[in-house]
Write a structure and sequence with these properties.
This protein is of the alpha/beta class. It contains twelve helices and ten strands. Helix 1 links the parallel strand 2 and strand 3.
Amino acid sequence: MTSKTIQIYDTTLRDGSQGEGVSFSLNDKLQIALRLAETGIDFIEGGYPLSNEKDVAFFEQIRDHDLGDTQVCAFGMTRRRGIKAEEDPGMKALVAAQTPLITVVGKTWDYHVTEVLRVSLEENLEMIGESVEFLAGHAGVIYDAEHFFDGYRANPEFALLTLRAAAASGAKILALCDTNGGSLPEQIAQITQAAIDSLADFPDVTFGIHCHNDSDLAVAKSLAAVDVGATQVQGTINGIGERCGNADLISVISNLALKKDGFSVLGERGLQHLTELSRFVYETANLQWRGGQAFVGQSAFAHKGGMHVHAINK
């Protein structure tokens, strides 16, 4: 049976750095990126080049390193309202980062469009389409659909229109985001399937999943999306990130490679380095290891006492 390749998209350097107590120096970010590339991670999201000088310097300096097949992505948002994409400072910063891929996030939930952006639903679709079209003239584009699952439940027709706007304008990967982490795995599977089916007329477009861990289900939700056709999983090493964190890529990778049949990750070469990578990120972020962390924790294969140990000894 041919294995289906699942791309691993790491956002430790951007989304992960938003976790409480986490602060990466420029050298930290460069060293983590090199470790990620050595492990075979497919995509590394380096940061938001408009937000601070450190991220600008990261994109400049990472170009001096050989990352093999790993690709670096710059992250940003769609153009601002009332301004052309080519004139928007955020768009210019993304292009200036000179990355082979650009990840751009846009509003999916109609409530956020009207109450946060304060624009019409039509202009939001224009903002998505024009931003993706402009960026696609300079790099490959991954479109992150923010709050997609909340948006779909509130207004499925509009949520799907946002995906179509991105796909029609040149986005090659559409990442569906459970931004507040509140969806359940069965909801993720159902809605992801609906999104894939609705864009069947874009056969070259693939789908990713980006889950936060506020319900302690981010890994399960990511695997549920893969089961129905998502081919990219976004997350962070050790699940670090804002609030309750992100999908832990250590567990995602291990489950796909060791527990589920029919999937291939990291080119089948990086599994033996996951414990080392996990510890390196913890130490670099000045965080304490989690002894009970699945697959890589020091207690994951430990036995304390009782009849279980008796059986192991026998």
